[in-house]
């Protein structure tokens, strides 16, 4: 009876299929294998890294054996859940929270054999070390635990993976409870690991690493510090209680570990500046960067777009349509802002959906970044390119109104459909909430198209420029 589907669908958005009990997460295992660089039969999806650790403790408890683990959370909390093995019981597993070289891991695996060597790599993406998973094939007693919690922002979904040889994973699976991984978590994990997300995920991780290095230098001038695991810095201030209180006043969550304070590292400079300001080591930024992000998933495309109007880079575009990538790069470069956009679209059908939906996502991200549009110049005006001349006028009024005057005789430039150019600017106008008037003349359709995108970038550069603090409207609102 327990495995029968519910008699009706749940009353939640996006709940299709959740009335059925979850099946084996094979698709997730395959995608994790690609991401982690191991064979498909070397992946066991689990309910977060902690769940992977718990399976190790369960396996040992079932066989009356012991587990050697670090004296820290969550290891000791898990140990307390299971009955202590009898004195002198053999060691079933040794858990290490370390990111040593694969050679060091291999040496350790040989020393502890036949006991399992379990490597906690929950924060591996934030470190320089090569994953211990690279030596799994040579060591039957090695288990590497990975997590989507920190690197992919899915701490609340509880998804991770145990990586090991198939026989070792079968031992773990023997103590796995039924329906261990909820379908909702599987869906979220597959979305987070979709190829369209990987570029932005990589940039986020890189930003945290850059910010962690900056904070370590700034904090190190005032107190002993050491990088923690992942997006964390462990600091030893002279008065930890005063520090945590000061951080709390500025909305920075910090934890205590004895005399050390666990400081979080954000990918956002402004958040980290608040941390420094709370410690009297800097002044919080007067104006945070104007950033926006759009995630668009349809049956035809999967897109992530992120912009920062107050940074000139990075600019990374990957839509699968080469000429369109080049055009969006022109928009960002001439617009003077950071743009990252990745799209997985149905290019086997036609580039239409990819181009249209990417324009919509870009417009949505720009709209979010503009926010209340305080202090912007609002209007943007022109661009000749050889014989071609493009004129683009923008009003960031919040009211969409597209106008496109110009024709193209060449149907394709590479895989890019020239007839979609007008469609792109209509989608941008509607998604941004802007009046965009485009006029282009010339003889070479390549030049004409490129001139339009460059002119749009230049006009946008003028319109998003900060000139003050007021909303540029007699109404007081846009």
What are its keywords?
single chain; alpha+beta; 478 residues; 13 helices
Written description of the protein model:
The chain is 36% helix and 21% strand. It is of the alpha+beta class and 478 residues long. The strands form 5 sheets. It has a 6-stranded mixed β-sheet with strand order 1-6-5-4-3-2, sandwiched between helices. The radius of gyration is 27 Å and the shape is globular.
What secondary-structure arrangement, pairings included, does this model have?
Blueprint: H1 26-36, E1 43-46, H2 48-62, E2 66-68, H3 75-81, E3 91-96, H4 102-112, E4 116-120, E5 142-147, E6 160-163, H5 166-173, H6 183-192, H7 195-220, E7 225-227, E8 232-235, H8 240-249, E9 255-257, E10 260-264, H9 269-278, E11 291-297, E12 301-308, E13 315-318, H10 322-335, E14 338-345, H11 352-370, E15 379-380, E16 384-385, E17 388-395, E18 401-405, E19 412-413, E20 416-417, H12 421-432, E21 435-441, H13 445-464
Parallel strand pairs: 2-3, 3-4, 4-5, 13-14, 18-21
Antiparallel strand pairs: 1-6, 5-6, 7-8, 8-10, 9-10, 11-12, 12-14, 15-17, 16-17, 17-21, 19-20
Helix pairs in contact: 10-13, 11-12
Brief account:
This protein has 478 residues and is α+β, with helices and mostly antiparallel strands. The chain has helices at residues 26-36, 48-62, 75-81, 102-112, 166-173, 183-192, 195-220, 240-249, 269-278, 322-335, 352-370, 421-432, 445-464; strands at 43-46, 66-68, 91-96, 116-120, 142-147, 160-163, 225-227, 232-235, 255-257, 260-264, 291-297, 301-308, 315-318, 338-345, 379-380, 384-385, 388-395, 401-405, 412-413, 416-417, 435-441. Helices cover 36% and strands 21% of the residues.
């Amino acid at each position: 009876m327990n495995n029968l589907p519910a008699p009706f669908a749940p009353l939640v958005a996006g709940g299709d299929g959740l009335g059925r009990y979850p099946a084996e997460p094979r698709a997730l295992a395959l995608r994790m294998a690609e991401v982690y660089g191991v064979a498909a039969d070397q992946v066991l999806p689990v309910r977060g890294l902690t769940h992977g650790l718990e399976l190790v403790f369960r396996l040992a408890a079932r066989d009356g054996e012991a587990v050697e683990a670090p004296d820290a959370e969550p290891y000791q909390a898990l140990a307390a859940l299971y009955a202590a093995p009898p004195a002198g019981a053999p060691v079933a597993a040794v858990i290490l929270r370390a990111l040593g070289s694969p050679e060091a891991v291999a040496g350790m695996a040989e020393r502890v054999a036949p006991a399992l060597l379990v490597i906690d790599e929950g924060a591996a993406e934030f470190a320089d070390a090569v994953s211990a998973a690279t030596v799994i094939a040579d060591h039957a007693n090695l288990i590497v635990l990975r997590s989507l919690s920190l690197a992919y922002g899915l701490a609340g979904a509880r998804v991770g993976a145990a990586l090991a040889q198939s026989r070792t994973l079968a031992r773990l699976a023997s103590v796995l409870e039924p329906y261990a991984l909820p379908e909702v978590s599987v869906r979220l994990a597959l979305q987070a690991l979709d190829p369209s997300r990987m570029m932005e995920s990589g940039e986020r991780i890189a930003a945290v690493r850059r910010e962690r290095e900056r904070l370590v230098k700034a904090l190190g001038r005032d107190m002993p510090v050491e990088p923690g695991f992942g997006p964390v810095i462990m600091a030893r201030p002279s008065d930890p209680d005063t520090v945590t209180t000061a951080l709390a006043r500025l909305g920075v969550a910090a934890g205590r570990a004895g005399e050390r304070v666990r400081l979080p590292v954000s990918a956002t400079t402004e958040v980290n500046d608040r941390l420094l300001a709370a410690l009297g080591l800097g002044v919080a930024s007067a104006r945070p960067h104007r950033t926006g992000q759009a995630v668009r998933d349809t049956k035809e495309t999967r897109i992530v777009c992120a912009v920062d109007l107050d940074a000139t880079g990075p600019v990374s575009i990957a839509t699968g349509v080469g000429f369109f990538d080049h055009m969006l790069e022109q928009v960002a470069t001439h617009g003077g802002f950071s743009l990252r956009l990745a799209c997985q679209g149905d290019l086997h059908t036609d580039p239409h959906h990819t181009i249209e939906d990417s324009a919509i996502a870009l417009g949505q991200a720009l709209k979010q970044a503009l926010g209340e549009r305080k202090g912007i110049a609002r209007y943007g005006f022109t661009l000749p390119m050889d014989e071609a001349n493009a004129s683009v006028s923008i009003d960031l009024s919040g009211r969409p109104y597209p106008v496109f005057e110009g024709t193209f005789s060449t149907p394709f430039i590479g895989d890019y459909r020239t007839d979609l150019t007008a469609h792109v600017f209509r989608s941008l106008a509607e998604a941004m909430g802007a009046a965009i008037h485009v006029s282009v003349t010339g003889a070479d359709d390549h030049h004409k198209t490129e001139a339009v995108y460059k002119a749009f970038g230049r006009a946008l550069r003028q319109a998003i420029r900060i000139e003050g603090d007021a909303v540029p409207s007699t109404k007081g609102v846009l």
